[in-house]
Amino acid sequence: MKTLVTRTFKMSPDEQAFLQSLGVEITILNNEAEPVAEPEQYEAVIAYRPFDATPLSAFSNLKYLQLTSAGMDHLPLDEIKRRGIVLNNARGVYSVPMAEFALCGVLQIYKKARQFAAQQAGHKWQRVRGVQDIAGKCVVIVGVGSIGNEMAKRFAAFDARVIGVNRSAVTSPYFDEIVQTDKLDEVLAQADIVVLSLPLTPSTRGMFDAGRLARIKQGAVLVNVARGPIVDQQALHQTLASGHLQGAVLDVFEEEPLPADSPLWDMPNVLVTPHNSFFSESNNASMFRVVARNLQEYLAKK
């Protein structure tokens, strides 16, 4: 099976040999920004953004697509579905690092990490009051997928009450309660911490506008490691500036890179990171396990 693999999927020589032993004939594309030569020859593609430089229509024989990202909002999903192309994402690969990142961000705000860092830099010995605990708090996680479940595990371990919000009815042992999206505003009013881990779709774009942000409990912390456009960024800035929200942990933004003149950079109650929450020392090994498993399942059905 002729397969195009971009450099976003990193393999060791042994891993590449294993895939080849399955009958996968690998061509490596070093730069996804470069057009693909003879795209019609490939039955399978493993990539991050496979159609930015070469349109899907040029891959006339494509039957299998494996993304190295969890998000799929950059794909022509309707066309992929119409053509019956098997589509897999990187579900589960980034869940643990993103969950740890979310927890770490909240702890930085609750435990006044930025203030202590400034005092250390200034060689200043001064105790800080107002340090908070996650224990006993209500955490609302919007999006009960693989990432949301890993987040729930960790916040529950800190003795928080964890409520999940999901579009469809699901169950999970890691949540105290899971409600459907029509109950979102109701649970936001209880939330001390709100974590977004849902995909960007037409229905979630702008979901957290000024009105919805105002419905979150006074003094809460918002964490967004999902997609920037889920939150109205101007409304978020205003909500933070007003003091309604205590703070925010933001890894994703409406425009990336975040413009240098964005006021979010300089807000003392905001942690800004450059879409970095998914990075981990274990990513390559986790990604290979997912790719190998999915390819084996696809080949077994041929």
Topology:
Blueprint: E1 2-6, H1 13-21, E2 25-29, E3 44-47, E4 64-67, H2 77-82, E5 86-88, H3 95-110, H4 113-121, E6 138-142, H5 146-157, E7 161-166, E8 177-180, H6 184-188, E9 193-196, H7 210-215, E10 220-224, H8 233-241, E11 245-250, E12 270-272, H9 283-301
Parallel strand pairs: 1-2, 1-3, 3-4, 4-5, 6-7, 6-9, 7-8, 9-10, 10-11, 11-12
Helix pairs in contact: 3-5
What do these coordinates show?
It is a single chain. This protein is α/β, with parallel strands linked by helices. The chain folds into 2 domains: 2-93 and 281-301, 3-Layer(aba) Sandwich (Rossmann fold); 95-272, NAD(P)-binding Rossmann-like Domain (Rossmann fold, 3-Layer(aba) Sandwich). 30% of the residues lie in helices and 18% in strands. The chain is built from 9 helices and 12 strands. The chain has helices at 13-21, 77-82, 95-110, 113-121, 146-157, 184-188, 210-215, 233-241, 283-301; strands at residues 2-6, 25-29, 44-47, 64-67, 86-88, 138-142, 161-166, 177-180, 193-196, 220-224, 245-250, 270-272. The strands form 2 sheets. The protein has a 7-stranded parallel sheet with strand order 8-7-6-9-10-11-12. It has a 5-stranded parallel sheet with strand order 2-1-3-4-5, covered by helices on one side. α3 crosses α5 (146-157). The protein starts with a strand and ends with a helix.
